[in-house]
Amino acid sequence: MKMDTTSVERMRLLLLIPFLLISASPLFGQEKLAQTGMKFLEVSTDPRAEGMGEAFTSVEGGAESMFFNPAGMARQNVLTSISVGQVDWIADIKHVYAGVSFSPFDGDYGVFGLSFRSINYGDLQETIIANNEQGFLDVGTFSPTAYSAGLGYATALNDKFSIGGNINFVHQNLGQSPVLIDSAGHLTNKSEAQSVYSFDFGMIYKTGFKSLAFGMDVRNFSKELKYEQESFQLPLMFRLGISMNVLDMWDVNATDQSLLVSVDATHPRDYREQLNAGVEYTFMQVFSLRGGYMFDNDESGLTGGLGIRERFAGIELSIAYSYTPYGVFTNVQRFSFGASLLN
C-alpha cells in the first residue's frame, strides 16, 4: 500500500529517534559513579523483556509489567494474569519470581497486582581475621538470602494515558557477623539483616499515531540504609522508552504478524546513562522471536529469546525463554510460564 507524504515524513522521524539516542549515549563502558546495595533488584526477571534487550518501559503486558513499568498492566484485557519464572544468574545465583494481576469489573476500577522475588546465593565460606599463621580463621559457611514482595496498582486514565505504581517490602540477610572471639575460641555474632520499603512509579502515553507509545518509570525509590558505617541506597533507576509496531505503517493486521521495535534510555544511580534497544516479531499471536542489544554494558550486550502462547477453553498459556551472553561470567538464561484467565 502506498503511503502519503505525511506518513513518509513521520516514518523518517521515527527511524531517526533511535539513532539520536544512540549518538547521545557515551559508548565508553560502565563508569562507576555511586554506591548502591541490594543489587538483586537490578536483575531483569521476565524473559520477554530480557530478550528485547530490557527495552520494555513503554511496552504493555500483564503481571510481568510490575517488574518493569507497573503502568504496563493498566490495559490488561484478561481477568487474571499469572507469571512465574526463574533466572539462572551469574556465579550460580538463582532468582525465582512470581506475579499475579487482577482486572475486576472489566478494569473499571483499575488493575491490582501482587509480586514476589527471592534469591538463592548458595553457601559461602565465612572467615575472620585471626592472630595465627594464616592471618585468618575459617568459621564455617553462611547462606545470604534476599527477597522482595510488592503490591501493585495501575489504571488507564483515558484512551491514551495510563499510570501505575508498586509498594515493595525488600529484605536482605547477610548472615551473622562475628564481632568478638574470647580466649576459648567462642564467637559473639551480630545479625546483618536489613529491611526497607521501596516504591516504583510509571506511566505510558499512547500518542494516537498508529501504535507509537512513550513510557517512563522510576524504580527502587527508598530511604538510605546502613549496615555498619557507610550508608547506601537501593539501585534507583529512571527510564524513558519509546516503542511501536512498525508494521502499522503498512497497515498489516497485527493479529497476523507484528514487529515491535522498542528503545529505552536508562539512568541508573550508580552508573552513567545507558541505552537498550530490542525487537519482537510475532506471528499469528502465537510464536514470538526476540532480539536486543544493551549498549554501554561491560559484560552483556546482545540478547535473544523466543516465546509461544496458545489459548485453551478460556485460558491462555505461554512460555518464554531468553539467553544473554555475559562476558567472562556464566551465560544467563531465563525461563517463565504464564497463564491468563480470559474475561
Characterise this structure.
The protein has helices at residues 5-24, 47-51, and strands at residues 80-88, 94-102, 111-120, 124-129, 136-142, 145-156, 161-181, 187-206, 213-221, 225-226, 231-232, 237-245, 257-268, 274-283, 287-294, 302-312, 315-324, 332-341. The protein is mainly beta and 343 residues long. The protein has a single domain (5-341), classed as monomeric porin ompg (Porin, Beta Barrel), CATH 2.40.160.40. A hairpin with a 4-residue loop joins strand 6 and strand 7 (161-181).
Keywords:
single chain, 343 residues, mainly beta, Porin, 14-stranded antiparallel barrel, two-stranded antiparallel sheet, 2 helices, 52% strand, elongated
Order of helices and strands: HHEEEEEEEEEEEEEEEEEE
Uncertain residue segments: 13-30
The fraction of residues assigned to DSSP E strands is: over 45%
CATH C-level class = Mainly Beta
Count of spatially separate domains = 1
Mind telling me the CATH superfamily name?
Answer: monomeric porin ompg
Number of helices: 2
Q: Which structural class matches the secondary elements?
A: mainly beta
Shape: elongated
Amount of helix: under 10%
Q: Gyration radius, to the nearest Å?
A: 22 Å
Oligomer: single chain
Give average pLDDT, whole number: 87
If strands are numbered along the chain, what order do they take across the biggest sheet? 1-2-3-6-7-8-9-12-13-14-15-16-17-18
Based on DSSP secondary structure assignment, what is the total number of beta strands? Answer: 18
* CATH-scheme architecture: Beta Barrel
Q: What distance lies between the first and last C-alpha atoms, to the nearest angstrom? A: 35 Å
Reported by name, the CATH topology is Porin
